[in-house]
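From the methods appendix. Each design record in this collection lists the tokenized structure first, followed by the designed amino acid sequence. Records were kept in a plain field format so they could be parsed without special tools. The example shown here is representative of the layout used throughout.

RECORD:
FOLD TOKENS (79 positions):
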């Protein structure tokens, strides 16, 4: 599987992970799709061989990274 295809799959699954508990992007001006793709790419780069059963793991990590990133930005804006 091509890396770019894998990034798309992981990013899409990460978005689905947050369906029941969506991230509040608020006035954050970065494109959400670009952010998911960037984080998914970073997560995938940490792995050499990705098996299909690891896609859920990678997608969850990507979702959590985005949530953490947004929260950190919001906290830094308050200081």
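DESIGN:
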């Amino acid at each position: 599987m091509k890396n770019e295809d894998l990034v798309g799959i992981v990013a899409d699954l990460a978005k689905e992970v947050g369906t029941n508990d969506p991230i509040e992007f608020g006035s954050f001006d970065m494109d959400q799709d670009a952010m998911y793709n960037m984080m998914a790419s970073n997560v995938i780069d940490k792995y050499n061989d990705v098996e299909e059963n690891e896609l859920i793991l990678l997608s969850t990590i990507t979702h959590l990274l985005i949530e953490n990133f947004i929260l950190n930005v919001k906290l830094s804006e308050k200081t």
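APPENDIX NOTE: The longest helix spans residues 55-78.
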